Amino acid sequence: MDLAAAILIQVLVGIASLVLISIGLAVVFGMMRVINLAHGEFLMLGGYAAVVSHQHGVNLWVAMLIVAPLMVGAVGVAVELVVVRRLYGRMVDTLLATWGLSLLLIGLVTTVFGNVTEGVSAPLGAVRIGGFGIGQYQLVLVALAALIVLALYGGLKWTRAGMIARATMQNADMAAALGVDRGRVYTLTFGLGAALSGLAGGLLAPVSGLVPTIGAAYIAKAFITVISGGAAVVSGTLAAAGLLGAVNTVASFLATPVAGEVALLLAAVILLRLLPQGISGRLFGGAV
Q: Are 191 and 80 spatial neighbours (Cβ–Cβ below 8 Å)?
């Protein structure tokens, strides 16, 4: 029983991690159809923002929950205004531009901090489940991931700003004819996606450590999760994270972490072969 409980908690932690690294990309790619190859670097910037601000005296929770998303959100707004805005509808150009941006961010961070590992100790202690120890911070990550999903779902579905954003992404010309400032909606939506990425990077920094190239470890999983989820930004991403996170965690427990990564990829390939439109294309049609 203790072993089953410990495995279940680890599965939830794996799902929460996938949700955190994917939700910002889900907003940008799922709503705006922008392939942001700098998504991993936004996560990396969030981690550095949290760690550096904490090293300079900011409370760790404030650094992770406020400083990281605000800083990366501001970077996202600047990127949309300077780079992405000129490339809407040109998917290949957007891909190349954001790839160049990712290389630039890696170079800048490496120049400032060096190619060394930065980090901060995870807050809180451990809780015992029989003979197994589970970090309390991991449980906090699960709770925070759930709160982020609920807040984003409610914001997109039931607020005026969320409805305007969804309407603009579905039919920009009609929204403009009704008086919506499309440029402002695009900027704020991209900034929201970047802020969510920064928040995730800050929250994951205590458990993953930081190097300038850590974004590469995030971006593949993020794209696999978002594409497997399909068109529904929140429900699709959550469903895909639940399936792939469970497969990854169980396979890692039964074999090795490498086997877990392979199992995740195979599960995504099989899923997209059976459901080419992603999970939400078959199960959550019309959902947010």
A: yes
Q: In this structure, what CATH number is given to the domain that contains residue 172?
A: 1.10.3470
Between CA 63 and CA 52 the distance in angstroms is 9
Query: In whole angstroms, what is the distance from residue 209 CA to residue 44 CA?
Result: 10
Which whole number is the average pLDDT over 250-272? Answer: 89
Name the one residue in this structure whose structure tokens are 């910037």.
45
- 190 Cα distance to chain centroid: 13
SS3 state of residue 135: strand
pLDDT digits (tens, 9 = 90+) for 117-157: 887 887 877 776 666 667 788 889 999 999 999 999 999 88
pLDDT tens, position by position, 199-258: 999 999 998 888 999 998 899 999 999 999 988 889 989 999 999 999 998 898 888 888
CB 156 within 8 A of CB 165: yes
The answer to whether the CB of 197 falls within 8 A of the CB of 37 is no
Amino acid at 195: A
In a domain, 260, yes or no: yes
Token pair for 210: 């930081």
pTM of this prediction? 0.93
Domain total of the chain: 1
CA proximity to 142, closest of 13, 5, 229: 13
Expressed in angstroms, the distance from the first to the final Cα of the chain is 37
Q: Which residue type, as a one-letter code, is found at position 161?
A: A
